[in-house]
Every structure is written in C-alpha cells, then in structure tokens.
Design a protein that fits this description.
This protein is an alpha+beta fold. Helices cover 19% and strands 36% of the residues. One of its GO terms (molecular function) is hydrolase activity.
Amino acid sequence: MKGVLLDRGRAVLLRNERAEWELPGGRLEAGETPRECVAREVLEELNPKVGVGPLLDAWVFEVLPGSRALVLAYGCFVQDFARMAYSAEHAGAAFFGLDELGSLALPAGYARAVRAWARHPAALGPSGI
C-alpha cells in the first residue's frame, strides 16, 4: 500500500535500501484496510497525518528477482508538510517535480501513480497544489 503526497506539484519520495526512490507505504496489518494502512505508514515514515483519497493505480511489482508484491497507490491529502521527517528505515526523503521523475531510479508504477494524482481533480483540494 503506497501513498502519493504532493506539495505544489512536487511529490515526496523516499530513498530505500536498494538505492531506489519509492512512495511512502508498507504492508497491511491484520484487520487493517488499505486506506488505514497508507495513513499509518505515511505517519510512521514521514510524520504528517494524511487523508487518504482515491485509488490511483494497482500493479504487481517485482521487488527483487522472484519476490513480487501487489501495490495499490492512493492519492493523499496533506495539511502540513512543515513537520515532515523521514524514519530510520529510509536513507532520505526529497521532493521531485513531475519533470524529474524520468531521471530517477524510480519504478515505473510509482511514477505513473504520481502523474495520475497530479492530473486528478481531487488533488487540487486540501493538499494545496
């Protein structure tokens, strides 16, 4: 489960242990809905509380050879990025414009989800882009 967070048209991405950029998110816990998972994971990984919006995309991602995961990416509404801080499970966090996504070590599904949220009418709401 992944969340797409935009601030003024720029997406926040996290640097993982494979030296790739990714969206914040993680695995479902028992009894949790996908939206609840995204809200919890974004809070754990970046600190801001988010409202979880529409499902943007779904795909099977080969994390490592022979290891696949179903990814659901949701658009997220963020009220305040001021207190954002990434967790120790990532090597860094940064904001990237849509025009920068193609030059990053970023799986195609994540870039597709970011672009989908940037085009979505709801993204012009509380997130302030």
